[in-house]
Amino acid sequence: MSEEIKERFEFILESISLIETRFNKIRFPDDLINSEDGITIL
């Protein structure tokens, strides 16, 4: 049980880190549309 909880927390932390990295790249409104991987963030 505790191993499963640990894995879930690790996944959540990785997700948060990915989101923070993604939003740190956004500096100008154009970045919301012309993101590196083609995903529109609006």
Overall description:
The protein has 42 residues and is an all-alpha fold. The protein has one domain (2-33). The protein is 67% helix and 0% strand. The longest helix has 23 residues, at 2-24. The model has no long low-confidence stretch (mean pLDDT 75).
List keywords for this structure.
single chain; about 40 residues; mainly alpha; 2 helices; about 65% helix; about 0% strand
Mean pLDDT: 75
The value of Rg in angstroms is 15 Å
Percent of residues in β-strands? under 5%
**What is the makeup of the main sheet?**
none
Order of helices and strands: HH
N-to-C span? 38 Å
Tally of helical segments: 2
Number of domains: 1
Unreliable spans are none
Q: Give the overall shape.
A: rod-shaped
The helix fraction, in percent, is 55-70%
Q: What would you call the structural class? A: mainly alpha
By DSSP, the count of extended strands is 0
Question: In brief, what are we looking at here?
Answer:
This protein is mainly α and 42 residues long. It contains two helices and no strands. 0% of the residues are buried.
What's the structural blueprint in terms of helices and strands?
Elements: H1 2-24, H2 29-33
